[in-house]
Amino acid sequence: MKLVIPFLGKTKSAWIEAGIQDYAARLGRYAQLEMPVLKDPYVHGAPEERTKELQAQALLAAARGAQLLVALDAGGMSLNSVELADLWTRWEEQGRTSVALLIGGHLGLAQSLLDRASYPLALSSLTFTHEMSRLILLEQLYRVCTIRAGHPYHL
């Protein structure tokens, strides 16, 4: 499976970036991973909805060609790790070979992007920064792969 996870701007926190790189390397054993870093169109003082729309356009352009769009949003489906592994298996059984997982900036995702998403997915009912969400998503995707492979990491 090819996973595309575009990031709006660089990860500023060194410890989060180190974790992202660690889990990206681990995940790379199971899936093809692309994590393009996009220029974040956020402008201080600009209307929030306009900013979110510009971010959505950038994310969708980076996700072009993906067969499924997964939007990370607090209002999305709440799955545990095993359920997410089952969903990944269903996608593969349906012949899906590429998935884009979209994380918004600090304002969240535009409604237009959420409406286009194949799957809105919540990482948690807790709120995380968009940078922490990157790390948590990669860890969970790695966990999904180890579940599917029968590896004891999940236990």
From TrEMBL:
Its main location: cytoplasm. Keywords: Cytoplasm, Methyltransferase, rRNA processing, S-adenosyl-L-methionine, Transferase. InterPro entries: Alpha/beta_knot_MTases, RlmH-like, tRNA_m1G_MTases_N. One of its GO terms (molecular function) is rRNA (pseudouridine-N3-)-methyltransferase activity. S-adenosyl-L-methionine binds at L72, G104, L123, S124, S125, L126, T127, F128. It is found in: Cytoplasm. It catalyses: pseudouridine(1915) in 23S rRNA + S-adenosyl-L-methionine = N(3)-methylpseudouridine(1915) in 23S rRNA + S-adenosyl-L-homocysteine + H(+). CDD domains: RlmH-like. GO terms for cellular component: cytoplasm. Its EC number is 2.1.1.177. It is an enzyme of class 2 (transferase). Specifically methylates the pseudouridine at position 1915 (m3Psi1915) in 23S rRNA. Homodimer. Belongs to the RNA methyltransferase RlmH family. This is Ribosomal RNA large subunit methyltransferase H. It comes from Desulfobulbus oralis.
